[in-house]
Amino acid sequence: MINRKGMHIANKWAKTVAVARDPSVAAHVPDTRRMNRKSLAKMLDRYGMIYVKPVSGTFGRGVMRIERSPGHRLPYSCHAGLDIKRFASVDKLYGHISRTQRRRPYLAQRGVHLLKTNGRRFDIRVMVQKNPAGAWEPTGVIARVAQRGKAVTNYHAGGTPVALSRLLGPKLGAAGASRAEGRLRALGLRSARALARAYPRINMVGADIGLDTRLRPWIIELNTSPDPYLFRHLKDKSTHRKVMRYARLLGRIPAPRTKDRTLVAKRTRRKR
Ligand SMILES: Nc1ncnc2c1ncn2[C@@H]1O[C@H](COP(=O)(O)OP(=O)(O)OP(=O)(O)O)[C@@H](O)[C@H]1O
Ligand SMILES: [Mg+2]
Predict the structure, then answer these.
(1) In three state form, how does the secondary structure of 78-110 look?
(2) By CB count within 10 A, which of 11, 42, 66, 234 is most buried?
C-alpha cells in the first residue's frame, strides 16, 4: 500500500523486506515473518517472546506481546492493552489471536526486551528528514515511555515522550548517554537511506528503535508519516522548531496560521 504521492508506505512487511537489503541495517532488524499458526509456534519456540501486529497498523492498535513460559500450567501469555490472558496450548493462543485479528494480515516479530524506567518499558523515536539541501538528516530523538502495564510505547496508547538523556544519563553517565544517542541517530539515518532506496519519494522517516537490556539497538518499525509534533514535548525547543521547519518545507504540514481555529483543531488531532 503506497499513497498517491508515494510519500507514505503503510505496509510493515514491505518496509521490512526493503531495509533488509542493507546488511548494516538488517543486522538490527528483529526476525520478522508473516504470522500464521506455524510461524507463531516456531518463533515462540525459538525466541520465547514475540510481538504480533497488524501489517498496516497504527498507534499500537492490535499489537500483542506473546510469551512462552515453559513449566507454567498455562505456558502461553498474550498481553494486549492492560490485559494479560493465559493459554494452555499454541492452538488455544492462536485461536485467541485469530479472533482479535479479524482477518487482517499480521506479522510476528522477535520481541525485544526493552529497557525500563521505573518498571515502564521505553523505546526511542529517531526522526530523519530530507533537509533543504535534499539530503537525509537526523533531526530529532525522543524516548517514549509506555503507560504502566502496557507492552506498547505509543503516545496514542498512553505513552509519555521524554528526553532520552533523562533515561540514559542515570544508566550511562552524560557522556555515555550522548554517545548512545549519536549511535541511534546514525542507525536512524542508515535506515532512512535504505528505505528510500526502495521508496524514493519518501521524505520523512520516524525510526522506532528499541534498546534491549544489553543496550543493543533494534529497529522495531519505520514510519513514513511520523508525527512531527511529538518533539514539542522536549524542554529544549530547538529540536521541535527544526523538525517543524523541515516538515513544512516538505509540504507535510501546513504553514502556521495561528489565528485559524480550524487549522489548530486539525493539528491537535494529528497522530502517530
Ligand atoms: N518486536 C518488538 N519488540 C519490542 N517491542 C515492540 C516490538 N514490536 C512492537 N513493539 C512495541 O509496540 C509498539 C507499537 O508497535 P509498532 O510501532 O510496530 O506498530 P504501530 O505503532 O501500531 O504502527 P505505527 O508506528 O505505524 O503507528 C512499539 O512502539 C513498541 O513499543
Ligand atoms: Mg510505531
Answers:
(1) EEECCEEEEECCHHHHHHHHHHHHCCCCEEEEE
(2) 66
- As a whole number of Å, the end-to-end CA separation of the chain is 18
Locate the ligand 1 atom nearest the alpha carbon of residue 58 and give its number: 27
Q: Is the CB of 222 under 6 A from ligand 1?
A: no
How confident is the model over 131-154, as pLDDT tens digits? Answer: 999 999 999 999 999 999 999 999
The domains of the chain are located at 32-110, 114-253
- For residue 178, count other CB atoms closer than 10 A to its CB: 14
- Long-range contacts: 263-270, Cβ < 8 Å, 24+? 267/229, 270/227, 270/229
Give the pLDDT of residue 250: 94
Ligand 1 centroid–CA 220 distance in Å is 6
Ligand 1 mean position to 53 CA, how many Å?
8
Yes or no: say if 230 and 244 are a contact pair by the CB < 8 Å rule. Answer: no
- State the pLDDT at residue 268: 53
Output the residue whose Cα is nearest ligand 1's atom 18: 221
Burial bucket for residue 262 (CB in 10 Å: 0-12, 13-18, 19+): exposed
**What residue's CA is closest to ligand 1, atom 21?**
60
CATH number of this structure's domain 114-253: 3.30.470.20
Q: Is 51 in the pocket of ligand 1 (CB under 6 A)?
A: yes
> Which ligand ends up closest to the CA of 10?
1
Which three three-digit cell numbers place residue 180?
548512545
Q: Cα–Cα distance between 222 and 139 in angstroms, integer?
A: 15
For ligand 1, the distance from its centroid to the CA atom of residue 228, given in whole angstroms, is: 18
Q: How confident is the model at residue 5 (pLDDT cuts 50, 70, 90)?
A: confident
